[in-house]
Amino acid sequence: MSDDLVNIEVNGVPLKARKGQMIMQVTDPANIYIPRFCYHEKLTIAANCRMCLVEVEKAPKPMPACATPVTEGMKVFTKSPKAVAAQRATMEFLLINHPLDCPICDQGGECELQDLAMGFGRDIARFSERKRVVKDKNLGPLISTDMTRCIHCTRCVRFGLEIQGYPQMGTTGRGEHMEVGTYIEQSVDHELSANIIDLCPVGALNNKPFRYHARAWEMQQQPLVSPHDAFGTNLYAHTLRGRIMRMVPRENEAINETWIADRDRFGFEGIYSGERVTQPLMRVDGALQEVEWEAALTAAAEGLQRTIAGHGAASAGFLSSPTATVEEMYLLARIARGLGSGNVDHRLRQLDFRAQETESAYPSLGMPIAGVDLLEGVLIIGSNLRHEMPMLAHRIRKAALKGAKVAFLNPRVFEYMFPVAAYGLAEHDLVGNLAAVVHAAAAAANQPVPAGLPAGATVTDDHRSVAAVLAQGTRRAVLLGNLAQRHPAYSELKRLGGLLASLTGARLALLTEGPNAAGAYLAGAVPHRGPGGATVQPGLSARAMLDSALKAYVLFGGIDPALDLGAGADSLRSADFVVAATTHLPASLREVAHVVLPIGSFAESSGTYVNIEGRWQSWAGAAKLLGDSRPGWKVLRVLANLLAVPGVDYVSSEEVREALRSACGEGLTTPNGGAGGTAPGAAAGSAAAASATRGGAGGGGAANGAAVPTGPWIDIPPYEIDVLVRGSEALGKTKDGRLARDVI
User: Fold this and answer.
1) Mean pLDDT of all residues in 594-613
2) Nearest to 139 by CA among 566, 632, 730, 711
3) Per-residue pLDDT at 690
4) Angstrom distance (rounded) from CA 320 to CA 335
5) Are 418 and 401 spatial neighbours (Cβ–Cβ below 8 Å)?
6) CA end-to-end distance (rounded Å), the chain
7) E strands within 19-86?
8) Sign of CA dihedral 656, 660, 666, 672
9) pLDDT tens for residues 368-398?
10) Is the pLDDT of residue 165 over 70?
11) How far apart are CA 676 and CA 94, in angstroms?
12) Which of 135, 143, 497, 502 is in the most buried spot, having the most CB atoms within 10 Å?
């Protein structure tokens, strides 16, 4: 027997356990159930509730299974008369002050207390004194409270301290006078805060927007994937008669564990916002009017054909929202290239595209998401990480608490709930400061300064501190965030980040905007690559399309020209013909569209996203389509037929997906099949070399002595990032929902 293992016996069943494990940590994997309230596998052990009392041979009294370590030869009895009597007594104490409001409690039907009371409760209470009453707390627009129901398990308190790193909840008082709350009345504002709704084993903390809307047994559960960032958070949608009532986490240890961000939970409200479009529209006499689908599709096809016949295929541009599925992007790219135009792109907020030829097959993290927990040194460049990708920030925090050194190089000081080893503030010159960090890293590694670095970099102690983080351990990463990708000199930032990764032996990772940027590259929704990275005649990037004032545009997905286009919407106003296949019709889109084709949201249609680690995740539609809207891939399929694009007679989204997977090949359909910052075919660790040694394409003009592009760029608040979260009433009332865009 290994020195790390001990032999125990539970209910007569022999088991092996690791030394130091608690009884409950051994019985759970063995499918031996022990009742509990306060224990949660992701939180520290509190042993508050005492519901898990079990009999241990030779122990003078029942012991809590969650807090009793195993020993060699231990014999445990979970269903003996002594254990059951202790559990029933604990339940009786828990119910002394619990209100009898199960019929009106939102937790009814999925309440852990309700379930265990059926098995361990008495039919008649022996307590005849008055029950205590606790005043409800106002925790903000997301979480409702009924604190009289609280059983003091402290899961919500431990979550704030251990998972968020922002301990807003706590306990005051002692005994039956103890209360859980915020002490000083305030809202709970962390971007993961609503997870305490799922953690609460009773009805004390509930989903405020969902309150009194439906019962658990009335709803159906369907799996979905988050449409708000590239992390690929797994969700369950709970629907009632075809309408989404709420979102809850779908456990996946490889991605989001058991948590979701608040925007993943409440962002679906935007599906039912007032800007949702449900009928085909066509501009008649200067105004949009409802028409039949056949008329709208025919007008869209004829308008595109007329424009191309009069001005050439290059006069048409196709812009996709990064929230579109791979099936939709693949069909959109097929339509564009079938008409002879290479002008197709999804990178709506990006301003600098000079380095695109040296990009990897698709932008990715370059490692499994679960591997982020194991990093020892991390440098994050140009990223408000908690706003851009909250669940990745959570993973980085876990690494930091294990001892990893984390540094930032940002134009603003952003707040983080974990130890930060170094913070480089680059308010006016992010490129110059990153170049100085590369100089510092080269000096620390006793290596020559890479060729092509901007001259005259002044290295300070701050730069040395940032570079020193990438000397920690053997598992290191350089992450380029959304802010960096919106920078007017993104090519330089990417080249310098690659050089830094090469000098330090780190991975270069790209944190992309939207849920499906990786899928867009694989689907060919970029102007320089076809599906699967195939060589094509390059077209115009999103910015070039908007700067060139093309004659016709097709906007696919929920695009708001006033908020989603980095280059502005002036060219759309001057275009001869604009087709919008969209879920929503904000004022800026209504102003420019000539034909509006209403499509379903991510939750109303089947589809696939490819997340930041290259994982393909598919789902079936969870909710009914609103009004006369149709799945986006079906709209594109019919439009392609009207435009005589060959080879697109697909009958299901699965057929479209498999056609794309076939074009990509096995190497690009498995996680991390295309390394994060690498040119196609290059090795994952050589991102810097691939980028730094190629003239203007790899590093832009700076490598050749030209001036670094400058200009404004923006930090977008977390609840303005896409059309769905912008339409969420609950998120709009939060502290982060009231933030304004920051022009840097």
Assistant:
1) 97
2) 730
3) 40
4) 12
5) yes
6) 62
7) 53-56, 63-64, 75-77
8) negative
9) 999 999 999 999 999 999 999 999 999 999 9
10) yes
11) 52
12) 497
